[in-house]
Design brief:
It is built from three helices and three strands, in the order H-E-E-E-H-H. With 106 residues, it is an alpha+beta fold. Helix 1 (2-26) packs antiparallel against helix 3 (63-93).
Length: 106
């Protein structure tokens, strides 16, 4: 029974750290840009877009190009946020692949 209690306790500790990590990631700002910085998207550490900045010189130009730049900047910011999340999760897991299968407890 002691091993099972230890597994439960470790699970609770991991869950508490994951909650802390998610709160921490929400407070981060991660930016991605396109068009040489003409369009910049900023996301939080969980990938939610918080801000878009567009150089005024682009706004007067080709709308299709602007749409492509906005999409590219958003994708870049979200990709960087995903990588940051994965790095933090690997640190939390201590190198273990997550999710990992639980041992057979029967």
């Amino acid at each position: 029974m002691t091993n099972f209690e230890q597994i439960l306790q470790m699970g609770q500790q991991v869950q508490a750290r994951m909650n802390e990590l998610q709160t921490e990631l929400e407070g981060r700002s991660i930016s991605g840009s396109a068009g040489g910085g003409m369009v910049t998207a900023t996301a939080d550490g969980r990938g939610k877009i918080r801000e878009i900045k567009i150089d005024p010189s682009v706004a007067a130009g080709d709308v299709e190009m602007l749409e492509d730049l906005v999409l590219a900047a958003i994708s870049a910011a979200q990709d960087r946020a995903t990588r940051a999340y994965e790095v933090e999760m690997q640190k939390l897991a201590g190198g273990l692949p997550l999710p990992f299968p639980l041992p057979d407890l029967t």
